[in-house]
Amino acid sequence: MFSSVYRAARERAASLDRPDRGRIVVSGTDRRSYLQGLLTNDVAALEAGRGCYAAYLTPQGRMIADLYVYELGDVVLLTVPRAQHAGVLEKLDQFIFSEDVQLGDASGAFSTTAIVGPDAAGIVGGLMGFAETDLASWPEHANRRGEFDGYSAIVTRVTDTGEAGYDLHIETPGTAALRRRLEEAGVPVLDQETAEALRIERGVPHFNRDMDQETIPLEAGIESRAISFSKGCYVGQEVIIRVLHRGHGRVARKLVGLLCDTGVVPSSGAAVTVDGRIGHVTSSAWSQALDKPIALAYLHRDFLEPGTAVLIDGQAAVVHTLPFVSARPL
User: Fold this and answer.
1) What is the phi/psi pair of residue 120, to 5°?
2) Fewer CB within a 10 Å sphere, N or C end of the chain?
3) Where are the domains of the chain?
4) Average confidence (pLDDT) over 207-236
């Protein structure tokens, strides 16, 4: 049985406040070449209105944070986990030497609201005065500046919410007006439990839950989205290349999906046992689409095959291919 807000997100549109996102503005003529040497994806190749997903790594190949990179035409906007944004800003500042690069913290100046679902393009187009057909054709990470109700705004195409849609970064004083307009349009607000279920159904890992500062991107399975294998050097690249070429991409553990046999949603951190090997759950939810509990968990590399039987705190589950539920095409 689908809840009304879950059905709205999957079949129409729903909104999600995103206070967990921090925003860093990188300006100057060298902004892309500077970020190119620090982040895992090909930032130098970005044209105005385009973006990418990337990771910022330590020299040991472990994640400082994951982030989204948006080239707006005259500046680059980085959105990062709010808990990491001050540390990322400080580290980025340490690597500015003679480059024409300036950093700014826009976390307090803007707030972020996601509009997701099949009707999101029409909703966002009406709010921003953009053509619905244009918005609907945007690839992931596309972006554009605009104005909402007299306030500066940036619209970005996102999929990390599970159900594809758009993030609206709006000057903070405009947030109340945005909320009123969404209510008038009949767009419900996603509660955190439903938002988590949508994300986990799509198998999207979340920093500070499914990834942390001990994680190598290959363990979380984000390399196809976050890492360019054709760009030049970046911090932590040596470790990534060594694992890929010498280790043939095999890491000691990997993030997988688990489909539970019982009606009990496992807790975060719950032990996962396979032939005496221990893994742990990182995120879990009740899947309304599958009518069963689901989880993301790290398992030893010998037990990653879909269908592998495991125990979560003694309860039966099986390894499941990610995503649990197929994403709607962009």
Assistant:
1) -60, -40
2) N
3) 4-198, 202-320
4) 96
Between the alpha carbon of residue 181 and those of residues 82, 177, 184, 186, 219, the distances in Å are 26, 6, 5, 9, 41
Helices (H), the chain: 4-11, 31-36, 82-94, 120-128, 132-136, 175-184, 192-201, 217-220, 223-226, 237-245
Q: Which conformational region is residue 292 in: left (phi greater than 0), alpha (psi within -120 to 50 degrees), or beta? A: beta
- Nearby residues of 186 by Cβ (< 8 Å), 6 or more positions away: none
Looking at domain 202-320, which CATH architecture does it have? Beta Barrel (2.40)
Asked if CATH classification 3.20.20.140 holds for the domain at 4-198, the reply, yes or no, is: no
* pLDDT value of residue 327: 82
| pLDDT of res. 95 | 95
Residue 200, both tokens = 């986990």
Share of the chain above pLDDT 70, in %: 100
Answer for the pair 257, 320: CB distance below 8 angstroms, yes or no.
Answer: yes
Bridge partner residues of 281 (DSSP): 297
Q: Residue 275 — very low, low, confident or very high, per pLDDT cuts 50/70/90?
A: confident
How far is the C-alpha of 195 from the C-alpha of 204, rounded, in Å?
Answer: 12
DSSP SS3 for 114: strand
Query: Which among 122, 87, 106 has a CA at the least distance from the CA of 24?
Result: 106
- Return the amino acid letter for 265: V
Task: Tell me if 295 sits within 8 A of 256, measured CB to CB.
Answer: no
**Dist CA 82 CA 90 (whole Å):** 14
For strands 165-171 and 151-158, give the pairing: antiparallel
